[in-house]
């Protein structure tokens, strides 16, 4: 399940390619934090509200889509990259902001909440009186293994990007492509059906 590419993977790869390994790592940590929060919501039954309420699902979906489109737009509208040295741009990257963006995009994706309430219960014995502990254990295990895979992806993507970013035109093209990818990701989320 962790190897299947999804919205989080695209977000992490886009940040790693456009802003370097540190941004990729902060993205992974933010996505992992969001997954732990989703696990907690599912363990305590709060995610069922999202699954059962069309209004709650839609609010989360559109808020998340709008935020991802906004991040993509900011990348597209950043015209400073052709004149700025790549290393100084990486130093300018705010790790707290990248982390926050990753947490928000993960939390505002209702499909992640639906995944946790649909996938994890299959591995929990219904005879247990307290299912919170096994739910949390499974969710955190899933999050850790997913984070390890995403760290590999972030590192690989940033290494490849570093090799081709010396050219300002290529740097501009990469930044614009990553911005368009995030906008496309936001639109995909906005128009996705509830299943």
- The structure class reads mainly alpha
> Given the structure, what is the number of helices?
9
Q: How many β-strand stretches?
A: 0
- Net shape: globular
Q: Pick out the low-confidence regions.
A: 81-88
Number of domains: 1
Largest sheet: none
Summary?
The protein is built from nine helices and no strands. It has helices at 7-19, 21-43, 47-52, 54-77, 86-92, 95-107, 110-119, 132-164, 168-190. The radius of gyration is 18 Å and the shape is globular.
SSE blueprint and pairings:
Blueprint: H1 7-19, H2 21-43, H3 47-52, H4 54-77, H5 86-92, H6 95-107, H7 110-119, H8 132-164, H9 168-190
Describe the structure.
The chain is mainly α and about 200 residues long. The chain has one domain. About 80% of the residues lie in helices and about 0% in strands. The protein is built from nine helices and no strands. The protein has helices at about 5-20, 20-45, 45-50, 55-75, 85-90, 95-105, 110-120, 130-165, 170-190. Helix 2 (about 20-45) packs parallel to helix 6 (about 95-105), helix 2 (about 20-45) runs antiparallel to helix 8 and helix 4 packs antiparallel against helix 9. It is globular, with a radius of gyration of 18 Å. Mean pLDDT is about 80; it is low at about 80-90.
Features of the shown structure:
single chain, 195 residues, 9 helices, 78% helix
